[in-house]
């Protein structure tokens, strides 16, 4: 038996910044050893449509849903059964099941052995639903399916999943109803076995449980690895924990600032972010030499056309390593989506399937600007933040150039980000299924 795992890309685009898709390493570890496995990650390679395959498993995110469905349809037309999993089918199962023989709803690690058994005995169920409280602690990763593939030289590692907060626009809390961790020992063992010394903790929020975070940081110290993570800003209120992070090798933090406006933060249920203290809290990172990757969303009710220039000025003044400026995106399954639907403000209800929708465009009617202004403002601020002049200004932050590794990280990441802005903006998510979209044609 031969199973193909497929990671679709956005509109078939190749990416210069792909990380190993860990979800497939989890499935690989659960797959019996007598079954052959192949991974096709469309972000870095083509799908071999002519390979002899018995079963296909596709990971579906909202942005890649249309592409995933087209791939699934093509395999199913050849009589090969397809299973769809990931965030998107969990929030839109009626839609996803039109393109699948079976759906894995929720985190799939506990479902996969049953799915394989049922498939082999010819009794594949239309849906498999993981219990929301199923354990994460025993999850194992088999990274052998990534061998020989050209991913970023940054090892994704997962310590926990879920987040203790419930920001209105975020799907994490809806998908993972509680925060769960693997044993620190298992994480350390995995790091010890890997040859990569630069890690990225892909946890939704590495600071969801301060005690668990401290246990990890203490255990990491002897390994002399370098690592980056996503964390909520409130970690900066704990100087002793920040010191421990740095001592254990942390060099970069990705922090969701989201907005500089208090009303917006209240509306998005992120008032705890306390924008009045951003300067003080961000300085806690910078003075310890941590590179800061800030993320923002635009389009909440207090945002106006002037907001973009204000946020740009602040971000340049802070000399962030990187920053992401996104139009507020109503993902299915989120409280935001439901609110905008109720208020009749959505421009496209199933925007991920809408041939008129373009990547980077506003998806709803903002209160204090037009949707066109929101689209243009986000594209403008992305370009302005990523000019060469801006890079020269930002690189002057000591955190961004204090050693050769950071300097090269800064230059490489900013170069990739700059390219990605132009490649993705305006892409149609429902483009026909070509083999691949050549990256050079898209500049
Ligand atoms: S803090 Fe981050 S991960 Fe947690 S709910 Fe908010 S946006 Fe999602």
Q: What can be said about the biggest beta sheet?
A: 6 strands, parallel
Multimeric state: single chain
N-to-C span: 41 Å
How would you state the average pLDDT, rounded?
94
Structural class: alpha/beta
Query: What small ligands are held by the chains?
Result: iron/sulfur cluster
Beta-strand portion reads: 15-25%
> Mind telling me the CATH class of the largest domain?
Alpha Beta
In the residues, how many domains can be counted?
Answer: 2
* Helix run count: 17
Give the uncertain stretches in residue-range form: 437-443
**Principal-axes shape call:** globular
CATH superfamily of the largest domain: Aldolase class I
Radius of gyration equals 22 Å
Q: What is the CATH-assigned architecture of the largest domain?
A: Alpha-Beta Barrel
By DSSP, the count of extended strands is 14
Looking across the biggest beta sheet, what order are the strands in? 2-1-3-4-5-6
Q: What is the helical fraction, as a range of percent?
A: 25-40%
Structure explained in plain terms:
The two termini are about 40 Å apart. Helices cover about 35% and strands about 15% of the residues. It has about 450 residues and is α/β, with parallel strands linked by helices. The chain is globular and about 60 Å long. The chain folds into two domains: about 1-130, Response regulator (Rossmann fold), CATH 3.40.50; about 155-400, Aldolase class I (TIM Barrel). The longest helix is centred in the C-terminal third of the chain and has 21 residues, at about 405-425. It contains 17 helices and 14 strands. The site of iron/sulfur cluster has 11 residues, from helix 6. Iron/sulfur cluster (SF4) binds near residues 173, 204 and 232.
